[in-house]
Amino acid sequence: MRTLPWIGLAALAVAPLIGIGNYPLHMLIQVLLWGFVYTSWSIMGRLGMVSFGHGAFLGIGAYIVVMCWNEFGLTPWIGLPIALAITAVVAFLIGYPCFRFKIVGHYFALVTLALSEITRLLIVALRDHTGGSLGITPKPALVGDATGSLAALQFSNKLLWFYAVLVCWLIALWIWRSVDRSMSRLALEAISEEEDASASIGIDVSRTKLQVTMLSAAMTCVGGVLYAQYQLYVNPETVSGIGISLQMVFGSIAGGMYVMLGPTVGAVFLLALSETLRILVGNQFHGLDLLIYGALLILFIIYLPKGILGTVLERLGRK
Fold it and tell me: E strands along the chain, which residues?
């Protein structure tokens, strides 16, 4: 059984080399990319800190890198540290007061929800630089038949993007596993049950929660950078605001945020759902996807609290 994950990883790595076609390859990249983002959220969410504001961090990563490239000619390799620094500051400014004054549960979720929407409105308001609600496209760096520009992080060959995103996804899984095996997980589980009792045995509640929050936010920011550079187009609705934040929450819960591969299974489920809706409904009903996500989120919380993968593993363990 221990060799099964390695066999699966090897099969995933060689899948693009057998000529599966551009569309299946695109879907694989999307699964790994959103699996990375959902895993980033679950690092925080599974430890009792439910955030509806991660769309803010995704938007910061996407827009800062694109704006640095378009307006100042700064390569994404420079734009990324700038985006991470801004994300860290924002996460600290939101997290520290909340954890210091014990704003938890529904109140913390509402604070993060406001952060996500404020970020979206700010992007729209700065339309001269961000393109407003119409979005923005990074200036092309590829000329003629060039297959890629490492400096601009623009690749016309999807195979290059697949392996780049695959590496990032594996790093996210490693971070998830490291946090899961660290003392921070045990401390945060204790904190989620009873903060005062945790503090009484020497746990620094505010610092522990802040560390995990900033780690989750930074990873989500990297996900925003990958999304912007892969799609070569971003707008406020796809990388910021309530909609994308709800998508992260739903994807993680649906797949199983207490299992390492659960968020990735959630990404597969959500992409399959969105593609089905696109084929059957198209764009006739604006906001239908959010309505369905919200309804399914309620159903998953009630009937499948451990998510798809978590429930399957639990039932297999009983046999």
Answer: 148-149, 154-155
